From TrEMBL:
Pfam family, one: TSP1_ADAMTS
Main location: secreted
Gene: Adamts13_1
Record has Acetylation as a keyword: no
PANTHER family hit by this protein: ADAMTS A DISINTEGRIN AND METALLOPROTEASE WITH THROMBOSPONDIN MOTIFS PROTEASE, PAPILIN
GO-annotated cellular components: extracellular region
Subcellular location: Secreted
Protein name (database record): ATS13 metalloproteinase
Lineage: superkingdom: Eukaryota
The keyword Metal-binding is assigned to this record: no
Keywords in alphabetical order: Secreted
Organism: Smithornis capensis
SUPFAM superfamilies tied to this protein: Spermadhesin, CUB domain (SSF49854), TSP-1 type 1 repeat (SSF82895)
Length: 403
């Protein structure tokens, strides 16, 4: 281009409109969890390009509907948990047969730290109690057979006979008489006074009728608990007729069964509770005196079978439990259970008079008796030829006979 005239070099000023503000996202930080689902935090700011540079702007200048999340889900690896156990304790007796126990806890498999036991709920757990022997005991005179010492447990209060009319009322159900509280069963004032006190003192009672109305108002107690029981083949439906609970004051009513748990306060008169099994416990927590609920319950044949044919139901106040015999067609996988329910303020004591689950040489881990405290869901396992005395912390217990 040497022979061609060269134009003058010049610069022209341009004035383009700035780009609209936009969201800027910085890379997410570390995950909040070392395994499983966690959250990672990312910085989100509103910026605008001016003369080739990012200028920070107020957030309302960027489109709110398009703002990215400041926390995003993240998963590094799948979490895994397992049961851990402490060492076995020393034998509970200095001679004869006793028990050894150990504590169980849920462990994070990577960090080996203790976590909530709910994470290990779906994993099988080994036994936490086993029999032990400390050698023969010196011969002595007593009611306990040699080599079989019992753990000292405070016996549960015995039942005194209630009024004849009350007893006949429960005989019609072909069920044992409920464990009437001692103060309700005192007959010093005559049958008429006993019947009057029975109906006035609702709290702590066990109702075995097929239907009825329970008035829990004005009980004069901060907590009032009643229980309803029926034969195994039935279930219970319950309706709230009236409620004067003050929800803002913390008053509430709880319904619990072997397969359900429910609590509420507002709109209770519209509620219909189904126990799904043959027992139901109603606990009323009242702050203000005079308040409470009025219940109506009925029983009916269960819509779904929730028990084995070899299962048994006992309502107390006393009885004998015999290891159920499995039918040939049931096979060995069936676990036979005995359910025990008493009045809410009563407790259950189980004494093993004679057990023979095989010697230590030929019994297996699948051949044992399991006793469960329903209120705490703690279990105790008995093997071999142990004699024992067990007591509950609540009013419900279950016994499972394995093989």
């Amino acid at each position: 281009c040497q022979s061609v005239p060269k134009p003058e070099s010049r610069m022209e000023v341009c004035d383009l409109n700035p780009c609209p503000p936009r969201w800027k996202v910085t890379p997410a930080g570390p995950c909040s969890s070392s395994c499983g689902l966690g959250l990672a935090v990312q910085l989100v700011t509103c910026v605008q390009i001016r003369q080739g540079k990012e200028v920070l702007q107020e957030e309302h200048l960027c489109p709110v509907a398009e703002k990215p999340l400041t926390s995003v889900p993240c998963v590094i690896r799948t979490c895994s948990y397992e049961w851990g156990f402490s060492e076995w304790s020393e034998c509970s007796t200095s001679c004869g047969n006793g028990i050894q126990t150990r504590q169980d806890f849920c462990l994070h498999s990577l960090t080996r730290k203790h976590v909530n036991s709910v994470f290990c709920r779906r994993f099988p757990k080994a036994i936490v109690m086993r029999g032990c022997s400390s050698g023969p005991c010196p011969e002595h005179v007593g009611t306990v057979s040699p080599g079989a010492e019992l753990q000292p447990v405070t016996p549960a209060p015995h039942l005194t006979t209630a009024a004849a009319a009350t007893e006949e009322r429960y005989k019609e159900l072909e069920l044992p008489l409920s464990a009437v509280p001692r103060e309700q069963a005192n007959t010093n004032g005559g049958e008429e006074d006993t019947a009057r006190r029975w109906f006035l003192c609702v709290c702590g009672s066990l109702f075995l009728n097929a239907s009825g109305i329970i008035n829990m108002t004005g009980v004069g107690s901060s907590d009032c608990t009643v229980a309803i029981g029926r034969p195994l083949r039935e279930e219970i439906t319950l309706r709230i007729l009236e409620s004067s609970l003050n929800c803002s004051a913390g008053e509430v009513v709880l319904f619990s069964g072997r397969m359900m748990w429910r609590t509420g306060c507002r709109k209770l008169p519209l509620s219909l509770i189904n126990s799904r099994t043959n027992t139901l416990i109603v606990k009323q927590r009242v702050v203000l005196p005079g308040n409470g609920v009025i219940l109506e319950y009925n029983s009916r044949t269960a819509t779904k079978k929730y028990y084995q044919d070899c299962d048994k139901q006992l309502f107390g106040p006393q009885g004998e439990i015999v290891n159920p015999v499995q039918l040939p067609e049931q096979g060995q996988e069936v676990v036979c259970r005995t359910f025990i329910d008493v009045a809410p303020q009563q407790r259950i004591a189980i004494r093993a008079l004679d057990t023979d689950l095989g010697t230590r040489g030929n019994h297996t881990h699948f051949n044992y008796i399991l006793v469960r405290d329903v209120s705490t869901m703690k279990t105790m396992v008995f093997h071999g030829k142990q004699q024992f005395l067990w007591q509950s912390t609540g009013s419900q217990a279950e016994i499972e006979f394995h093989e």
